[in-house]
Amino acid sequence: MSQTLTPPKITSLLAPQAAPANPPSLTVEFFQETIALTKRLFIQLQRRPTTLVAGIIQPFMWLVLFGALFLNAPQGLFGNDLNYAQFLAPGIIVFTAFSGALNAGLPVMFDREFGFLNRLLVAPLASRYSIVAASTVYIISLSLIQAAVIVGASALLGAGLPNSFGLGMIALIVFLIVLGVTALSLGLAFALPGHIELIAVIFVTNLPLLFASTALAPLDFMAHWLQVVASLNPLTYAIEPIRYIYLNGNWGLDSTVLTAPWFSLNFAQVLGVLVLFDGLVLLLIQPLLKRRFL
């Protein structure tokens, strides 16, 4: 009894598959890629949460130590019925977000040095800008988490707690300053030759920008030349509106929040300066990204 063996239909398996009837748009693919790359960064954070923990402990120590340092300062030194914890909290919130954003380029730099970035660049991505977008979303998320913790800690230390609308405005200000600084850090990650140079830039700019702002002292405490420098510092434009929210229950977009040596700005104008700063940085890093991605 003979049996006929029929070969499997190999040709049908090797034939090219038809494209889906409705392929996802480039926008959908971009968001999918951004979400996947952001998830990768959060997985790294979950495995090594030291960065987040240190980013919360350090500003909390600043709040405690500087609050104790000026605990017996003369009454009214920083304003009527104002303790130093209330004055310091906005500066620590912004500086914590700024420090995290300034370090945003380090993961990308390490990906460059270990070769993972090259693998992403040769992958069939809908847009290589999803690499930058994922890092930005990741850093903004961490900054908002850290800011929320510092707001709660400062409330326990006597700084008070703004209302829900004030908290939302603080989140918006933190978002604006983090967006610009993160973009700048990512641009440096693609421009500098290695992580040693990037860390050097971070060390050189971190504390000087803190002391050249109104985070630790008001403008009228400073020498005139430092007042000019602080008036050009983007951190000052993030600190002052948050400080105004802490010190004034009734505030609006027309409230004057910053009085510099040669001008005064209200709430809306300060927000406009932060948006302008973000737009300028995003414009400046475009040649670096295009040279790397295209």
From TrEMBL:
The keyword Membrane applies. The chain crosses the membrane at residues 50-71, 91-110, 131-159, 165-191, 198-219, 262-285. One of its GO terms (molecular function) is ABC-type transporter activity. It holds the Pfam family ABC2_membrane. InterPro entries: ABC2_TM, ABC2_TM_bact-type, ABC_2_transport, T7SS_ABC-Transporter. The keyword Iron does not apply. It comes from the Bacteria. Its main location: membrane. PANTHER family: TRANSPORT PERMEASE PROTEIN, TRANSPORT PERMEASE YVFS-RELATED. Belongs to the ABC-2 integral membrane protein family. This is Transport permease protein. It comes from Synechocystis sp. (strain ATCC 27184 / PCC 6803 / Kazusa).
